[in-house]
Structures are given as structure tokens and as C-alpha cells.
Amino acid sequence: MENAFSRTELLFGKEAMRKLASSRVAVFGIGGVGGYAVEALARSGVGAIDLIDGDKVCLTNINRQIIAVNSTVGRYKTDVCAARIADINPDCKTTTHKIFYLPETQFDFSVYDYIIDAIDTVAGKIAIAENAEKCGVPLISCMGAGNKLDPTAFEVTDIYKTSVCPLAKVMRRELRRRGIRSLKVVYSREEPVAPAICCGDSKGRRVLPASNAFVPSVAGLILAGEAIKDLTGKFQ
Q1: Neighbour count for residue 10 (Cβ, 10 Å)
Q2: pLDDT at 201 over 60
Q3: Is residue 205 pLDDT above 50, yes or no?
Q4: Has residue 202 got a pLDDT over 50?
Q5: What is the pLDDT of residue 2?
């Protein structure tokens, strides 16, 4: 009998779909990268998704974030994303956490089958990696996607095999200090592009990264694809 995931089942098989339906995945960061990761997880039949983000949709998100449209500006990203998941797959259990994840944040990582890190703060990313390793939960982390133009430059590798990416460089150093010997990442060797104009506050103290519709989305879809492959064991 046909259902919302019939076409996926033709490719993955019944057992893989059963695994996805029984899996719980946490996505940290529901922005340009994380929003597309969630979209792919929901459309692949993942049974439970936790959304972790304390931010609200703003006007400047519309150029790249799948949950950002004029009607969602001002709403919490987790709430908008949860409503979208419910419309895609009503059977998916969605849990929202309106927080910005920090090292001191109390969080139970052990309840997850997989974790996707799509936040952009180094301290938070390191803490996620430490806690995921401590609990033995598979994790994939996204490195820098801002100031990039080439969506075909992304690759999946271990953090210690990365190069060029400034965020990956910092992560390598900090993870090595903490004795974390491996971390699966999505990253790009493309050199960051200098923005055409400088966006900051009224005193010019903060430079915002430039972005577009097609680079963060690709990174997010790769994250979700790797999570789905790892959860099902179908494509190893």
C-alpha cells in the first residue's frame, strides 16, 4: 500500500525504513544548514527529531533558511520547524528545546541514536563532541558554510583530515587537546570569500558572514544523508 515514504522504501527497503522510524535524532542549530538537515530527516521517515535552537526567525534568514518566510519572521525557529515536520510526517515525534547550546547546558545525550551538529560556536561544538563521545552516540558536525560560493566543494571526512577551513582548524586543535581522536565532519576546502560589503552593528564592531541559498542547504542535506546512511547501515 502506498504511503508518504513509498518511493524511499523502493530504494532503501522495508528494514531500513523500520530503523529510521524507530530512530531519534537530535539536530543542534536550526538555521541555514540545520533546517535543511531536519527537512531531509523528516522526509526520510525518521520517527523522532529533537530541535535545539534558541533563536527566532529574522528577515535576513529568508535568503537561505527553509523555515524562513515572511509569515514566520519573529517566531521561534524550533516551533516553525516542528510545525513543518508535523505537516510532512504527523507520526514523527518532535521535541523542541528553545536554548542556545553551551558547554554548561544540561542535556541528556544518551537518549539519541544520532546527533547532527549545525551550530557555529566553537565552545558549543566541542561540548557536543565531548558529550556524544562520552555517551557513545554517533555524531556528524558541520564546519564553516558562511562566505562560500561553491556547493560542490563539500566533502565528508574526519576532522583530522581537514584543511583550509578556519573553523575546522580550531576544532582540530581543541579536540586534540581533549583527547578526542575522531569526529565525522562535513566541510569545504573552498577559501572563504570576502563579502562585497561589511554588515555589522552601528559601530561596525561585528562582521556578519555572507551566505546564499545554495551552499548551506547542500551542507545540511549532506549531514542528513550521512545520518540516514549510518542509522540504516544500508549504504556502507
Answers
A1: 8
A2: no
A3: no
A4: no
A5: 86
Nearest to 115 by CA among 37, 181, 170: 37
Mean pLDDT of 97-108: 95
CB atoms within 10 A of CB 73: 15
* Greater model confidence, 158 or 204: 158
Q: Which of 29, 116, 3, 46 is nearest to 81 (CA)?
A: 29
pLDDT for res 234: 72
